[in-house]
Every structure is written in C-alpha cells, then in structure tokens.
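Worked example 3. Consider a protein that binds tetrahydrodeoxyuridine.
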Amino acid sequence: MSEKKKISFEITVFNSIQELGSSEKILLKKAIEARKNAYAPYSEFKVGAAVLLENGEIVLGSNQENASYPSGLCAERVAVFYAGAKFPGVPIKTIAISAASDNHRVHSPAAPCGNCRQAISEYEFKQEKPIELLLMGEVGEIIQCNSIADILPLGFNSTFLE
Ligand code: THU
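Given these inputs, the predicted complex is written out as structure tokens:
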C-alpha cells in the first residue's frame, strides 16, 4: 500500500529589518553591504551574503560573474567556500542574504538557488547543526528559515556514497 506523506516547514516573516534581533540585524546589514562588492556586469543583479560562524567571525561574499556565464559564482557559495577556506571546520550558525537589481526594485526575499542549497547543505550535514537563513531582497519583508534542509527536502548527501 502506498502512503501519502506531507513535508512541511516553518518560516518566520519579518516586515522590516528593525524587527530582527540585534545580532541578526547586524548580519543582514553586512549582507546588504556585501552587495556593493558584487561583480555583476551581465545580470546587473547584485547579491550579498554574510556568514556568521560559531566562533563569532562573519565572512562576506558577493556574486562574481564571468563573460563565460557558468564560470561565475553566486554570493552564497563565494561566502561559504571562503568561510570553509579561512576557518576550516568552524560550524556555520546563520547565513544572511540580500539581493538588489540595477534595473528594478527587488521586493521578494532572495532565496538561494538550487546549487547553493546543495553546497550549503554539505556544511549543515557535516556539522550536524542546522544553518539558519535570513533572506531579503532590497526592500520589503525578510524570511527567516531554521535550516537549509527545510528548503532542500529529500536532499542528497554523503551517506548515499557509503
Ligand atoms: N545569484 C546569487 O548570487 N545568488 C542567488 O541565490 C541567485 C542568483 C547571482 C548569480 C548571478 O550572478 C546573478 O545573481 C543573476 O542570476
């Protein structure tokens, strides 16, 4: 007999950055700052990511594009790979993300692309502790997610290789 199962998860929606707790506010402001260092001459869509580590360090990333489009990299992966390279093995607590376009106002919270979800989930799985996400556009509401696994259900991880 087949069985229907429902996968659901909780998010918290904040109306503005002012509603966040102080450390989350600081982190999201850093992500907004990080957008300035985006190299996005092709899409003109600038994304900033700020990674808060368990040792209190904050590592920033921004999207870095390339004339050969697939050779560029999203802000989230730049940030988490940089964190892994600079502070190897230090667990990630929270990743804040903000996106803005030169051509229109981004009102919706920017969610990591599928490749970034997979890349971040590698670290979450390894550290055995959830990575919190704070997602924002340029203006408008902020979405807080408790775990990357929530937004990558039925994900692939290293146990499949064993
Ligand atoms: N981008 C990110 O940096 N993060 C995302 O989550 C989605 C997309 C970048 C990639 C590319 O430089 C530009 O935004 C347009 O897709």
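Take a moment to read the result before moving on. The mean pLDDT is 97. The two ends are 29 Å apart (CA to CA).
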